[in-house]
């Protein structure tokens, strides 16, 4: 559907454009669930900001808080707009889709056909603000405030994520620390990461460095 630059999250402000550096990471978001939603246009403005990928696919970039669309939980940032009232929008630019939505008569119901990005990383993604609350499970330690050891380990693992993958994600780092703090060796950590976060295919040297960061935090070597 689209690609984001240097983040695995559905962040339409990071939509891949024409400028790519040698150290940039590209994350592909493929098609997930298709859905058809009826919307009653009670206001002239629906509260949507539309963008496109330059290849004939238009997406929801932002949803204004408190707007008509904001009250419809099935509609989320990152959804591709396939059709309005049965009219296909494939091949349309974002401004054409925005114009069609604006021209819809107020006080009537219309139908949106959407496709959401596949939620391969829902377990690590925290959708907030314009991203709308997600329905998938979220990662974290599952406990309250992390200990001093965990805070240090999370900070170091977050640095490693940036070094190896070009992203910073404290939730992901916290999950990795939680998975690794009771493991006896790097192999056990690798098995735990593969089971829970296998989609990332972390390289062996990265896993070894994570193991070392957790071990250093345990003995206060920071």
Major pleated sheet: 4 strands, antiparallel
Shape: elongated
In total, how many beta strands? Answer: 8
Given helix and strand content, the structural type is alpha+beta
Helix content: 25-40%
Radius of gyration: 21 Å
Q: Report how far apart the termini are.
A: 42 Å
Contiguous runs where pLDDT drops below 50 for at least 5 residues: 120-143
Q: What is the H-and-E element order?
A: EEEEEEEHEHHHH
Strand order of the largest sheet: 3-8-6-7
Query: What share of the residues does DSSP label as strand, in percent?
Result: 15-25%
Number of helices: 5
Average pLDDT number: 78
Structural write-up:
It holds the Pfam family GIPC1_GH2. Residues 36-116 form the PDZ domain. By secondary structure, the chain is an alpha+beta fold. The protein has five helices and eight strands. It has helices at 94-103, 148-165, 170-180, 186-197, 204-218, and strands at 2-5, 26-29, 31-40, 48-52, 58-63, 80-84, 87-88, 109-117. The strands form three sheets. Strands 3-8-6-7 form a four-stranded antiparallel sheet, covered by helices on one side. A two-stranded antiparallel sheet has the order 1-2. A hairpin with a 2-residue loop joins strand 6 and strand 7. Helix 2 (148-165) crosses helix 3 (170-180) and helix 2 runs antiparallel to helix 5 (204-218). The longest helix has 18 residues, at 148-165. The chain is elongated. The protein starts with a strand and ends with a helix. Residues 120-143 have low confidence and may be disordered.
């Amino acid at each position: 559907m689209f690609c984001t630059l240097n983040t695995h999250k559905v962040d339409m402000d990071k939509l891949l454009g024409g400028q790519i550096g040698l150290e940039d990471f590209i994350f592909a978001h493929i098609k997930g669930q298709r859905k058809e939603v009826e919307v009653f246009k009670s206001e002239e403005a629906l509260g949507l900001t539309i963008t496109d990928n330059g290849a004939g696919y238009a997406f929801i970039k932002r949803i204004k808080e408190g707007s008509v669309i904001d009250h419809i939980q099935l509609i989320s940032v990152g959804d591709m707009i396939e059709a309005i009232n049965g009219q296909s929008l494939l091949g349309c630019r974002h401004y054409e889709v925005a114009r069609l939505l604006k021209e819809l008569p107020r006080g009537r119901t219309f139908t949106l056909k959407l496709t959401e990005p596949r939620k391969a990383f829902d377990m690590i993604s925290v959708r907030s603000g314009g991203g709308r609350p997600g329905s998938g499970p979220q990662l974290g330690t599952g406990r309250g405030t992390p200990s001093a050891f965990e805070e240090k380990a999370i900070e170091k693992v977050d640095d490693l994520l940036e070094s190896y993958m070009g992203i910073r994600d404290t939730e992901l780092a916290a999950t990795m620390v939680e998975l690794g703090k009771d493991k006896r060796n790097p192999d056990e950590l690798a098995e735990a990461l593969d089971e829970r976060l296998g989609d990332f295919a972390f390289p062996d040297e990265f896993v070894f460095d994570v193991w070392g960061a957790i071990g250093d935090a345990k003995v206060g070597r920071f």
